[in-house]
Amino acid sequence: MKEDIMNILNYTLLEFGEFKLEVFDLFAVVLILLITRFILFLVKKLLDRLVRKERLDERNRLSFWLLIKYFIYVITFVLCLEAIGFQITLILAGSAALLVGLGLGLQQIFSDIVSGVFLLAEGSVKIGDIMEVDGLVGRVIKINLRTSEILTRDGIIIIVPNHKFIVENVVNWSHNAVLTRFAVDVGVSYGSDPELVKKILLQCAAEHPDVKNTKKNPPRVRLINFGDSSLDFKLLFWSSNGFFIENTRSELRFMIVQKFKEHGVEIPFPQRDLHLKSGKLDS
Predict the structure, then answer these.
(1) What CA–CA distance (Å, rounded) separates 15 from 243?
(2) Is the pTM for the entire model greater than 0.70?
(3) Which of 84-88, 148-152, 157-161, 190-194 has the lowest mean pLDDT?
(4) Are the beta carbons of 174 and 130 closer than 8 angstroms?
(5) Where are the CATH 3.30.70.100 domain residues in the chain?
(6) How crowded is residue 205: how many other Cβ atoms within 10 Å of its Cβ?
(7) What contacts 190, CB < 8 A, 6 or more positions away?
(8) Which of these, 148, 134, 133, 132, lies nearest to 62 by C-alpha position?
(9) Which CATH architecture has domain 127-172?
(10) Across the strands, what pairs with 150?
(11) What top-level class would CATH report for the domain 180-262?
């Protein structure tokens, strides 16, 4: 019986030159894959437990999970090649020139992959972060090794190469901050009472549910300029609704217009006085 099993395991499925693939090699590959799945299962359970115990943030958990998963996949791939008889060191040594050529031709792809590893390791960009890239604002929904996916406010998914987050200036509205400060600008006529305007703006901020009023970061009103036809004010407020902040700004403007009408505060429009002079030309 034992001899029969050994004969089955040593049965040659494929032979090409010095390369020989046996049943035992396939069995080893399957065993490696099963062990890999079991290790990944344990790692995922451990990370989930750390999140439940509040020792790890949810977004950090996703970054750690992706980084560990990719690392284990690379090791698994190498072990599987070794199991079926490929010598990785010999392959790398024999294809050094080819790898150099590929590196030169695919350097941008390699740059994106390395950038993806740095993103996952450093945690500077995490899933769920609100990013501004090339003037577009969106939420990061997936970080892959080469690219990341950003969902814009219009429901469009943008595929962004990872090197953009490393070598270019991007704005992360969520980095190390739950609340972000935003502003609404408004101008009133010169005949308006500035203190009344300030009171109305603060009242609008206090009544909106998306505006956070804390002792450390309360809403503020600034008189920022004496315009050509208006006193220019800026309402500064803090909110955690960064992804849909344009809706919050719009709702605040509606509230401001309504309360200005109730209190007789006028929002002026630009005016110009035109003076015409008539004269006679000497003949």
Answers:
(1) 58
(2) no
(3) 84-88
(4) yes
(5) 180-262
(6) 25
(7) 229, 230, 231
(8) 148
(9) Roll (2.30)
(10) 140, 158
(11) alpha beta
